[in-house]
Amino acid sequence: MSDTIIGIDxxxxxxxxxxxxxxxxxxxxxxxxQIVTPSVVGLDESGNMIVGEKARAQxxxxxxxxxxxxxxxxxxxxxxxxxKESFSAVELSANLLSYVKRYASQYLEEEITRAxxxxxxxxxxxxxxxxxEAGKKAGFVVERIINxxxxxxxxxxxxxxxxxxxxxxxxxxxxxxxxxxxxxxxxVLEVKASSGDNRLGGxxxxxxxxDWLRTRFEEKHGVKxxxxxxAMARLKEQAEQCKIALSTQEEVTVRxxxxxxxxxxxxxxxxxxxxxxxxxxxxxxxxxxxxxIHVVMADSGIGRGELAMVLLVGGSTRVPLVTQDLKEFLGxxxxxxxxxxxxxxxxxxxxxxxxxxxxxxxxxxxDVNPYTLGVRTxxxxxxxxxxxxxxxxxxxxxxxxxxxxxxxxxxxxxxxEVYQGESEVASRNHFLGHFLLEGIPATxxxxxxxxxxxxxxxxxxxxxxxxxxxxxxxxxxVIDLMDSGKEETVDVSNWRxxxxxxxxxxxxxxxxxxxRQNEKDEERSEDKGAENARLEELLYQLKKAILEEDEDQADxxxxxxxxxLDE
Length: 567
Fold this sequence. Notes:
This protein has 13 helices and 27 strands. It folds into 4 domains: 5-200 and 288-368, Nucleotidyltransferase, domain 5 (2-Layer Sandwich), CATH 3.30.420; 202-283, Actin, Chain A, domain 4, CATH 3.90.640; 373-480, Substrate Binding Domain Of DNAk, Chain A, domain 1; 495-566, no CATH class. The radius of gyration is 26 Å and the shape is globular. Strands 1, 2, 3, 4, 10 and 11 form a 6-stranded mixed beta sheet that branches. Strand 1 (5-10) and strand 2 form a beta hairpin. With 567 residues, the chain is of the alpha+beta class.
């Protein structure tokens, strides 16, 4: 395996990759010679997977076969339809990351298999797990998940290691918002607190403008277009362009010659949008960034007067109202000291260099856990209490303990359930896992005291250990927050020994032969890796169904394999 580790910014709108070499981060060019790759995946007319610019260009003509803004569906388990097929956000993100892997390997002239991938600071454990899973499906060893504002701060900090100050990183991207407060001193970047909103970004600005334009069109022409996917795709594209133009112009005219038709007569949209109108549409969205700022200031204990800098990150910070609002809200002029679009990938590359021990200067980074960690406990009135062990925004690595009691005298077993989240009701938070502490003395006179310790490290590993204080009896659970939590892979190598195997031998032989031939083809096409991976997964599931003697499932999978081979 190559020692080279790249940094990847897997964004809602665009994706970028970088490498740290010659003592600085360097952006990696894709197959089109571009730094920026649209975070868009689709199926072409032949059913082949397409990624990036080709998929983005297809969106206007075939929105039903194209997926945009997949990042917003990570962690939701909601299927994404491409034509007649359904995919998960993990599968489509894996195709995007596979494309990054291939173009990075070509650009660096070596096989790249290791990566640091950025995520919004406010992504929860499930979302982080799914990003890691997508990376693994794409063929990466995911060395670390890094919070996007922390990565941006590292991009800035690598050239400002002598500074001592508090920096607020305001990261407003295409689909998510994060705010992180850092302290910089003597080459150390210490994250003090993070907060955010995973449903707030430039795409929400677009939606406000889309709705305004759509309403004006519908009122003027008396025709509804909200369910017309083709019209809405064209409207979305023009709204995005209008938003971008309004960052430098006072007004923009949006023209779409044939947006829809009525009684077979083509209808055009033409509206002039002023910057003031646009700002009125989105002012409440920008105000929503205030609450996370309040949270990080309160959690860190840092006053506004102590801030030396507000660092703008993310393409949506180019909207002039953002700068104006922050200046009024914080009393400090925000700055763009790093490239809003590239700094996260660059910072991830700096993190990768730290892991690979490439940095000549000793930059040190600390981070925090963005969500509270605890266990479910009960009292006389409530059996669903979230008892906090590690509060949110505690610097990691960290170990914290608390003492609890058994529920009643004579209780010999305790089921310890671990949760992540901010609700005082345990079941409303994310369930991470559970384990049994057994062998508790069966005393009949008093409850036994239990010590529960949480240890959380920089790589996302949480170890929970419970101890019976009177005997020293222990039990523990290790939760790898960098692990996808998927079911364990079953050994299917002896599928031929199953009673029903003979009915499927021919189709499996054909598929395996096709895979061998396809792997010999050295052409770096965008759909090659996706085809191989999809067929390999189908074959695995088919062999597993054969071993389990589930012939109905095996028949369905065999048909899918045959259809794919016929295509």
